[in-house]
């Protein structure tokens, strides 16, 4: 297994292709921590079948674990974080007063090196459940780390219109999305309930497709972490801590 042009960084998917297993010892390779956000809470259709996003998220997990097992990946399901009827974001609480589940998630977001955002498309937009969950946390938790966009649909477009809006959303949140994106049309015909490929689907082709985006995510995550260890970005650019007016021009 070799470095890329002496950079100390290694790819881990086919096409690049190095697989990093948990027992491999590779000088220069840094284990990354990624969160997969599953951004749907609907238990009815559309899209059919209900919770179609679970299949897509599980497929992403399987791909990452098989092709790049040396990294830590955790699934964050929006359904596990019921939001209050009256919106009060996590950063508005005193830390001792915030709901414990949100405190725990905030710590996971802060410690992660990158994010994979899985969303359906509703009315040409990203899932409101995903936006609502992410909006609970300040951008300083996400900033200077990369993200990857994964969209899906029961129809033929694969959620690509939602993905366009997600690029703006995630950029403002501070976790800049990598250029490659994943779109899964007719996801119910591609993935089974456990995330495995349906009969007739080619696993290598699908994992190569997913891997192009994940490869970019891992490369940027390793690069960002390496430089952040040298120069703390939060000291170079002050985080907004009080009001949005802190970003105003003179």
General shape: globular
What would CATH call the class? Alpha Beta
| Rounded mean pLDDT score | 84
CATH superfamily, by name, is: Flavodoxin domain
Number of domains: 1
Biggest β-sheet strands, sense, barrel: 5 strands, parallel
The number of helical runs is 8
Order of strands in the sheet with most strands = 2-1-3-4-5
Please give the oligomerization state of what you see: single chain
User: What is the CATH topology?
Assistant: Rossmann fold
Provide the β-strand percentage band: 5-15%
Rg:
18 Å
Report the structural category: alpha/beta
* Series of H and E elements: EHEHEHHEHEHHH
**Helix fraction by DSSP (H/I, runs of at least 4):** 25-40%
CATH architectural label: 3-Layer(aba) Sandwich
| Spatial separation of the terminal alpha carbons | 52 Å
Could you list the spans in which at least 5 consecutive residues all have pLDDT below 50? 1-27
The count of DSSP E runs of length 2 or more, i.e. the number of strands, is: 5
GO molecular function: FMN binding; oxidoreductase activity
Cofactor: FMN
Pfam family, one: FMN_red
Protein name: NADPH-dependent FMN reductase-like domain-containing protein
